[in-house]
Each structure stands twice: as structure tokens, then as C-alpha cells.
Automatic annotation (TrEMBL):
<dbReference type="InterPro" id="IPR036291">
    <property type="entry name" value="NAD(P)-bd_dom_sf"/>
</dbReference>
<feature type="domain" description="D-isomer specific 2-hydroxyacid dehydrogenase NAD-binding">
    <location>
        <begin position="110"/>
        <end position="284"/>
    </location>
</feature>
<dbReference type="Pfam" id="PF02826">
    <property type="entry name" value="2-Hacid_dh_C"/>
</dbReference>
<keyword id="KW-0560">Oxidoreductase</keyword>
<dbReference type="InterPro" id="IPR006140">
    <property type="entry name" value="D-isomer_DH_NAD-bd"/>
</dbReference>
<protein>
    <submittedName>
        <fullName>D-2-hydroxyacid dehydrogenase</fullName>
    </submittedName>
</protein>
<keyword id="KW-0520">NAD</keyword>
Length: 323
């Protein structure tokens, strides 16, 4: 039986490759490395591999039914959950890499401070070569936060906000199960009750049928006029048209979106011109931070040990749930 692994990634250093080779050696596997400009070579190799470590739906689509495990180096795996036809083997294991919490949490802190300290408005003032410096500002300290999604990203955000003196951090999750990173965790079914008391809403949800437009027009209207919305989960979770209208109508204080639907955002989308908005092109959780890359490889190696030993995979995704 083949014990080959196809690794098709762009961020690996020589140190990462050595780490993977050593883990593969101990577990009886042989890794084969390809860069993103070697698609055809990776495709040929994949035909005799049991394991694929990549983030390419196109490559996965070419895999034979003998593929047993696809480790996606991205956290978002909604595409693979929505389209089972991507897997020639319907029983192929799918794992993802929930290692983006640190870098995304730092992005959330950055844009939160930018909003609270009125940076979008000061950018307009300075862009007009004007000089007005008396806009009232708010602080993370003694403020209240609602985090929609209590997974790796939500927990990392909560921990950093706590370290900066946040007064209260409420999490919302599917189960409502308590977690020490939050002052309280409530089920998502309580969202309508929580929104009217929300000052800063951080959205860190995966894309599933239950989360599409979870923050719709009616729920945006429940938020106070001085509330901020930050979305670093999936763009599908938010009604962008309703958000732009609320911002332009003074019904919300501001927003920061790192994820949008669709991506790239069309040039004529109303979000571009919305009032007090910070838009970034899906950069909060990519592979530009060394720590993220190191953890990505470390978790793949840990799960390769699990796979070889017949233990459950730590990053296993339930394709029916979407995460």
C-alpha cells in the first residue's frame, strides 16, 4: 500500500520541510513537495498518494478514490463541505488548520482601536488637508464586547481584549457552552436579545447554512446607533447592503470588514463608499505571519502521528456541519 504524501503549498520553508520529512520517516510515510507552479507534477504524484496536504480544490478534484485524508491548510473549508463531488472517495477524511486565531485576533484589535479612536473620520479630515482633532474617542478598556463565534478565533480575540481591560465579553455559540475566555457564553438563539445591548460586535463564524446572513437587515436594526461591527469570519454571514445603508444613515457608528461576499468585492459595490468603514482584502488570517505557518505545519505533523497510529485526527471536520 502506498505511503506517499503530496504536499502542495507555497509557504513552506526548508525547516518546515525537514519537520514534515522527519515526522513522515517516523510514521512510515514519504512526502513529496510541490510549489503552486507545479500543478501538473503534483497532480501526477497525487495519483498514488494516500494523503494530500494543500489548499487547492482544483488539485483535490483530480485525486483518485484511493485518497484517504485531505489536510486543508486553510481554516475555512465551506467549499469542501458544500460540494461532496470534490472527493472521489466519499469517506475521505477532511481536516483544517485552526491556527489563525493569533493573527486574526491582532487584526481585530487593530481595527477595533481604529474605529474607537475615529481613524476613518480622521483620514477624511486629513485627506481634505483640514485640522480638526476634537472627535470624542472610546477605549477597549471598560468597554463591552459581543463575539459571535467562540472557536479558535473568537477565543483568541477575547483573550486579547481581556488583556486590554475590556469590561465584559459575551460569546455566542451554537451550544452556549461556557468557556473561561468569556464572561458568559450564550446560545446563538439568544442573538436577538443580545444585539440591543451590544457596543462592539465581532463576527468570527464559519460559513454554514445556519450562518448565511445571520446578521440580516432586521438584526442590524437591533444594534444601537453607537455600535461597531467587525467581521473576520465569512462574508456570507452579513447582509452587506443593509450594513452600508445603516452606516450611511447614521444607524451604526462604523464597521470593519476583512471578509466580503463576493471576493474580490465588485468595484461598484456600495460598501466602498459607506460611511466610517474599514475594508481590508481578506488579509487578517493569511499565511504572512511566521507563527501561523509554523503552527500549521506543527498541527499537520501532529495529526500525521495520529493518522499513522489510528487515533482520531485533532483537526477533523464534520462535513455535514461545515466545521
Amino acid at each position: 500500500m502506498s505511503r506517499d504524501i503530496c504536499v502542495y503549498l507555497e509557504f513552506l520553508t526548508e525547516g518546515h520541510k525537514a519537520q514534515i520529512r522527519e515526522t513522515a520517516r517516523r510514521t512510515g510515510f514519504v512526502p513529496h513537495f510541490f510549489t503552486l507552479d507545479q500543478f501538473e507534477e503534483a497532480k501526477a504524484c497525487l495519483q498514488h498518494c494516500k494523503v494530500l496536504y494543500a489548499h487547492s480544490a482544483d488539485l483535490l478534484r483530480t485525486a483518485p478514490a484511493s485518497l484517504r485524508w485531505y489536510c486543508c491548510s486553510f481554516a475555512g473549508v465551506d467549499l469542501y463541505c458544500k460540494d461532496p463531488a470534490l472527493f472521489a472517495n466519499p469517506d475521505c477524511l477532511l481536516t483544517n488548520s485552526n491556527v489563525y486565531g493569533v493573527t486574526i485576533a491582532e487584526h481585530v484589535v487593530m481595527v477595533t482601536l481604529m474605529l474607537l479612536r475615529r481613524m476613518p473620520e480622521y483620514a477624511v479630515i486629513m485627506g481634505q488637508r483640514s485640522w480638526s482633532n476634537q472627535l470624542p474617542v472610546r477605549s477597549i478598556r471598560d468597554n463591552e464586547f459581543t463575539i459571535l463565534g467562540t472557536g479558535d478565533i473568537g477565543r483568541n480575540v477575547a483573550e486579547r481584549l481581556r488583556g486590554m481591560g475590556a469590561a465584559k465579553i459575551t460569546g455566542l455559540s451554537r451550544s452556549g457552552r461556557p468557556h473561561p475566555a468569556f464572561d458568559e457564553v450564550r446560545p446563538i438563539s439568544d442573538l436577538d436579545d443580545v444585539l440591543p445591548r451590544t457596543k462592539i460586535l465581532v463576527m468570527a463564524l464559519p460559513s454554514t447554512p445556519d450562518t448565511i446572513h445571520i446578521l440580516n437587515r432586521e438584526r442590524i436594526a437591533l444594534l444601537p446607533a453607537d455600535a461597531y461591527v467587525i467581521n473576520v469570519g465569512r462574508g456570507t454571514a452579513l447582509d452587506q447592503t443593509a450594513l452600508a445603508e445603516a452606516l450611511n444613515g447614521g444607524k451604526l457608528a462604523g464597521a470593519a470588514l476583512d471578509v466580503m461576499d463576493p471576493e474580490p468585492l465588485p468595484k461598484d459595490d456600495p460598501l466602498w463608499d459607506a460611511r466610517n468603514i474599514i475594508l481590508t482584502p481578506h488579509v487578517s488570517g493569511n499565511m504572512t505571519l511566521g507563527y501561523t505557518c509554523d503552527e500549521n505545519v506543527a498541527r499537520f505533523c501532529a495529526d500525521l502521528e495520529n493518522y499513522a497510529a489510528g487515533r482520531p485526527l485533532a483537526g477533523l471536520v464534520d462535513r455535514a456541519l461545515g466545521y
